Amino acid sequence: MVVGKLQAAGCDPSSKGTNAYESRCPVHHGKRKNLSVSVGEDGRVLLNCHHAGENGSPSCPLDAIVGALGLRLEDLYPKPNGPTTKTKTSEKKKWSNLDDALKAQAFHIKPKPVTTESWAYHDADGNVVMVVGRFDAADGEKTYRPFHQLPDGTWVCADPPGLLPLYRLPEVTKHTQTVFVVEGEKCVLALKTIRAVATTSAHGAKSPEKTDWTPLAGRPVVILPDHDAPGEGYAAAVLRILKGLNPRPPWVKVVRLPGLADGEDVADWIPRVVGDRVGDEAREAVCGELQALVEAAPGSTWTRSWTPPAKPHDLWGAFPWSKPRSRFQNGPTRPRTRRSTGWRARWSG
Questions:
Q1: pLDDT tens-digit readout, 305-341
Q2: From the candidate CATH numbers 3.90.180.10, 3.30.420.40, 3.40.50.300, 3.40.1360.10, the one assigned to the domain spanning 169-339
């Protein structure tokens, strides 16, 4: 939680080993990473700012650091031993395999029948870190539960320790082109059908700060929010997190898809664009529409002053079957003009 809060605050935490991080301090806002983050023997998060004040004394007390992150001192303690957690929750129910865990959770969902779907989250090496299960009750109510495997091979219904990985992380790290960020696994898989590189964080719009977004550092990003208030909130939260990465993405665009009803998303939008088309014709129709929307959308505030209009940008790399027009084969020409405010790139043609 603490590392996620530091990431959201733009403090650029980086790993220094197992359960150890260094970060810029959210109190004195220095350029150096002189805030150490570690875990004590009792499971408590240890924060120590090594920046010295004018008299040589520590300038950033613990309560100030915690307060700057929007936390309380009790949030640094592990939940099983925290003042508001009952001890009986420390022992979680275990299952010998994932199927039994999913069935056990589905048993408690009502009304019946309940349909179950699951998505696996991997680390960069392709190892399963966690699985998110979705349970759809007969009345249309949706329930999500996270699962992860313990060292003894059993499964529990809980998040794994530490920050969560991005969905389809190996696919994200494999490619270098634009990454689409959406809300929910089904939206990622919808974009996969048009061969776009897409990802999301676990738990939807609720907790983007619980995910490790550092794989998107230095990557161009397009955010496609759901057409509702939580979707807008998720897009804003992700934008803040991306702004705090080092290096920042060269540009980020929030693209609101046209024609969506309240609560709809890119998975609803794609079939409408496809219509009666099939195969490559269908994919190219979606890609062309999406390309135009991305080009027309404004860029992120921190890049707007130097990023030229995206025409074309590297979305071409996301769609391998698309062939750029000949004038763009080696990139467009970009003559520079000198103005009183400095150099500015201008696209020709």
A1: 434 444 444 454 444 333 343 333 333 434 444 443 3
A2: 3.40.1360.10
Domain ranges of the chain: 2-88, 92-156, 169-339
pTM: 0.66
Residue-wise pLDDT tens digits, 229-254: 999 999 999 999 998 898 999 999 99
- Read off the pLDDT of each residue in 112-135 and give the average, rounded to a whole number: 95
- Which one has a higher pLDDT value, 283 or 73? 283
CA separation for the pair 252, 195 (Å, rounded): 20
